[in-house]
Amino acid sequence: MVRKMNQVFKAYSDFWGQFVNPSKGKPIKTFPEGLANEQDGDKIKAPSFPYITYPIIRPGFTQSAIGTASIWDKSVSEPGFLGLVSDVLEQVAETIPEEGIIIKTSDTGAIWIQRGSNFMNIIGDPSDPAIVRGVVNLVIRSHVL
Predict the structure, then answer these.
(1) What CATH number is attached to the domain comprising 108?
(2) What three-state secondary structure class fits 1?
């Protein structure tokens, strides 16, 4: 059962890892919510921009989990610039249709990701006007047999 649950977590992580920085053509770094950090030698530091954080899910179709994924970027030259965040939000909207998306995780597992209430929004960061955050509200169901 633990192996199958790990397949759910990996498939969900891979889902968020598919989104690309349009200016570089490379996937954007992703982190589970609350675990956004990078190793720098012996030190752990905040990740460099841009990056995506996503909610941690628990397997089970009997209940819906409501979560928020975030696309983070910082513009030194143009505080409040929405370009990358807007582009990635558009990629997410194209990937998660109105009816949601089902991701097969194993022979007996799947994740159903649906658009949540107020599906997308862009907000600033009160601590730093150069930071822009794209918010994606989700309803997530996962199942492992």
Answers:
(1) 3.30.2000
(2) coil
